[in-house]
Amino acid sequence: MIRKFYIAGGGTGGHFFPALALIECLMEKNIPCEFVGAERGIEKRLSHLIASEKHFLKVYPFIGRSLKDKIKSLYSVSFSSLKLYPKLKRDSVSVVFGGYASLPLGISSLLKGVHLFLHEQNSIPSTTNQVLSKFARLIFVSFEHSKRFFPSQKTVKTGLPVRRSLLEGLRLSEKEARERLNLEDRETLLVMGGSQGSSFINSLAVDVFKKKGLQGIHITGEKEYENLKQAYKGMPVLVLPFTERMDLIYRASSVVISRAGASSITELSLYGIPSLFIPYPYSVRDHQYYNAKEIEELGGAFVLRQEEVELSKVLKILDKLLSNREEFSRNIRSFAEPNACQKIIDHIQNFLMTYS
After folding, report:
1. 115: phi then psi, degrees, rounded to nearest 5
2. Which of the chain's ends, N or C, has fewer CB atoms near its CB within 10 Å?
3. pLDDT value at residue 169
4. Measured between alpha carbons, how far apart are the two ends of the chain, in Å?
């Protein structure tokens, strides 16, 4: 019998929200669990969403940093791994969602002999998951593309865990969601640039709304919120720096312009929202581009690299998405896996029954 699940994922929303979704699922089943994240990550700011016991470590990123910061990162990971070690119980399991915030749990689990499982959200794996994959019992993935980076005999496509609130939001009608957001019941363009916002997409969006005249929702990020709020004065655009009610936002939206993080793609596919993806050009190993291409190949989205973006192109793509909305919606929805959490738990339990 499993005494406890330890779940690690954070630093960015892409690593944190799937970990949060798995915790919600475990707690619904009365399976004990604890969360491990970083003090400097988004998970600390949103710690009120984590219903389980939680630990925040002083750990720092490594990739893309100066030599001094890399040394700091290695020290912080080593120290945090040793700090976690005595907390782990051998009859527990650890599930790591990648990123620097997850590495201490991965290392301490290996040292303690705790069964380690990984989830890779993106089409191209994080360095953390690539390192730990050699020791993991099973590796769960969201994209077909990422299977090529891991041993086939222990890699399973489960999809990405999605929070309960987003699954419940599927019961809403577009009209009801728009009423709750004080929007008119008409075609609505959603614009979002990831958990931190995107200056490039923010600037593009203002031009799109001026030209297109669509009703809109624009999630700007904290940094540029006030300036954009002023820019949209007199326009039918709901401007938000951040929101925890993405269920309402998605259900109210007809079409979206977005970055191409794995969580965003998964959630948009769940709601069947035709998409124009503009991948973040500096994502590690260009993983956002490959995330988005898988959806484009399914016929559910268009992808433009940032350097290819022109206002005229964007407007034409939005027209195509809106005029064939039902078809694009059906195609992007084919990527969704609403039962990802349950699949992960089932695979872990089956593995333990087989090899314990």
Report:
1. -60, 125
2. N
3. 95
4. 10
Structure tokens, 56: 């925040």
Model confidence over 64-84: pLDDT tens digits? 788 887 888 888 889 999 999
Structure confidence by residue, pLDDT tens digits, 231-266: 999 999 999 999 989 999 999 999 999 999 999 999
Strand order in the sheet with 155-157: 53-57, 33-38, 5-8, 93-96, 115-120, 138-141, 155-157
Tokens standing for residue 1: 């019998």
- Which tens digits make up the pLDDT trace of 265-295? 999 999 999 999 999 999 888 999 999 999 9
**3-state DSSP assignment of residue 142:** coil
The DSSP string of 212-277 is H--EEEEE--STTHHHHHHHTTTSSEEEES--S-HHHHHHH-SEEEE---HHHHHHHHHHT--EEE
User: What is the spatial order of strands in the sheet that 301-303 belongs to?
Assistant: 237-240, 215-219, 188-192, 255-258, 275-277, 301-303
Q: Which of 221, 217, 207, 232 is closest to 182 using CA atoms?
A: 217
What are the helix (H) ranges across 120-181? 127-132, 164-169, 174-180
User: Could you say which DSSP state residue 100 is in?
Assistant: G
Q: Which amino acid is at 141?
A: V
133 in Cβ contact with 118 (< 8 Å): yes
pLDDT higher than threshold 70 for residue 1:
no
Q: What secondary structure does DSSP assign to 310-354, as a single string?
A: -HHHHHHHHHHHHHTHHHHHHHHHTT--TTHHHHHHHHHHHHHHH
Q: Which residues contact 312 (CB under 8 A, 6 or more apart)?
A: none
Q: Which two tokens stand for residue 80?
A: 């945090």
Residue 96 pLDDT grade (very low, low, confident, very high; cuts 50, 70, 90): very high
CB-based contact 310:134 (threshold 8 Å) = no
- Residue tagged 């016991």 (tokens): 53
